[in-house]
Amino acid sequence: MKITYRPVTKNDLPDRVRWFNDLEISQFLGDIVRSGTTLAKQKKWFEKILKEKNRKDFVIEVDGKPVGGVALLEINKIDKNAGIFIFVGEKRFWGKGVAKSFGIYRQLWI
Ligand SMILES: CC(C)(COP(=O)(O)OP(=O)(O)OC[C@H]1O[C@@H](n2cnc3c(N)ncnc32)[C@H](O)[C@@H]1OP(=O)(O)O)[C@@H](O)C(=O)NCCC(=O)NCCS
Fold it and tell me: How much is the pTM?
């Protein structure tokens, strides 16, 4: 099982709609996500984050297929820290070390 990360693109938005509209996934992801999403909302979100300088959004892939996402929020380049938003949208991959693997990479991106 090879876990990799790449920047989120427009092509990932339909997956995000499917993942976030599953309450089992979105219940702990905050009010905005939990209240449901649509492709139109995700497109708006994507345009907005492209302009934000202190966040970075990635897709998590297992063996080249998207399984979830991770975002570094409020990146502080001076103190080298950030907040993390993480989810594994393909539930069959829960409990297999996907989220934990992020720790290896995150220092590279701040
Ligand atoms: C929570 C979530 C990101 C974990 O991802 P994962 O790839 O299944 O987790 P991992 O297999 O890498 O496990 C990492 C650690 O978290 C623990 N863990 C995994 N899922 C957990 C859960 N639901 N509750 C409590 N601990 C959990 C694991 O036991 C492991 O602990 P260990 O290091 O002591 O062994 C994933 O279940 C998910 O996306 N859930 C829905 C969205 C969500 O709740 N995101 C977090 C919002 S803050």
Answer: 0.90
